[in-house]
Structure to design on (289 residues):
């Protein structure tokens, strides 16, 4: 028994060390740094207590980033999860070219984030971009979707949904393929309608996948930096400023690492609370085999 436990810990040890070194220890160090000032030149860091957090509460850009992140998450999370489920249901059927259709849906996922952002910048380009050409066909005036505050955030959100839906589709497709075929046959014999079968059988059986996908969608909604950096730089007038990109700006552009640490702890707290809330809210609806 002791030998078996020893072997088990040896297998776990590499992942445990990696997780400890690159996740838990940095989180603890970031928490400690958030209570200190930023060392500059010969001036060492000094303990400031909750001063960074007090400054955060009075920071209008932080408030704007929080609002934008909430709007962005409210758009991208349900849209990417819902679209991925629809795509999975579509390609789960048997028809000619289904393999090509699956590849087409999944292709945006394997593209580099910077490449995706540049592709969509071309789509959004006023005057000659794809969207401008489509608007011109129906007689609409050109519009700069990433260059005006009213639409910049939604333009970035659309790119994220397009990028992540194909990734989540793979998990839903795998879950759909685990549903026993006799259930479908019995439902067809009983005259069960497709919507009723989906609501009564398919949806409950894929709830574990839905929970997994939704948690990853929340994490993805709060970790976006690449698209914002390439497409808008948080502008115009902070209209597309998101929390993680603001942390990046504070830490690496303004070099205020202490304040960036405090912002990071707020982000970690948000993700922790939302993640735990998702598990508690969905636990009664998840049926594990």
């Amino acid at each position: 028994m002791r030998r078996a436990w020893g072997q088990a810990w040896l297998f776990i040890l590499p992942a445990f060390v990696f997780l400890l070194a690159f996740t838990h220890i940095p989180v603890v160090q970031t928490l400690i740094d958030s209570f200190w000032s930023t060392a500059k030149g010969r001036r060492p860091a000094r303990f400031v207590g909750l001063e960074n957090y007090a400054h955060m509460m009075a920071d209008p850009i932080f408030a704007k980033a929080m609002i934008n992140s909430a709007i962005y998450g409210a758009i991208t999370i349900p849209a990417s999860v819902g679209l991925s489920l629809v795509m999975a249901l579509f390609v789960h059927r048997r028809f000619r070219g289904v393999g090509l259709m699956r590849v087409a849906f999944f292709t945006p996922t394997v593209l580099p984030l910077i490449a995706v952002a540049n592709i969509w910048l071309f789509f959004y380009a006023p005057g000659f971009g794809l969207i401008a050409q489509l608007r011109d066909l129906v007689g609409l005036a050109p519009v700069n979707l990433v260059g005006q505050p009213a639409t910049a955030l939604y333009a970035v959100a659309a790119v994220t949904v397009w990028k992540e839906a194909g990734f989540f589709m793979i998990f839903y497709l795998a879950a759909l393929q685990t549903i026993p075929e006799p259930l479908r046959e019995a439902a067809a014999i009983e005259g069960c309608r497709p919507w009723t079968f989906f609501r009564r059988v398919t949806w409950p059986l894929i709830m574990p996948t839905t929970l997994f996908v939704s948690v990853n969608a929340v994490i993805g909604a709060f970790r976006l930096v690449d698209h914002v950096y390439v497409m808008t730089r948080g502008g115009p007038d902070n209209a597309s400023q998101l929390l993680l990109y603001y942390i990046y700006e504070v830490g690496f552009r303004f070099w205020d690492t202490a304040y960036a640490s405090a912002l990071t702890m707020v982000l970690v707290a948000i993700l922790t609370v939302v993640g735990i809330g998702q598990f508690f809210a969905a636990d009664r609806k998840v049926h594990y085999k």
Observations:
- The mean pLDDT is 87.
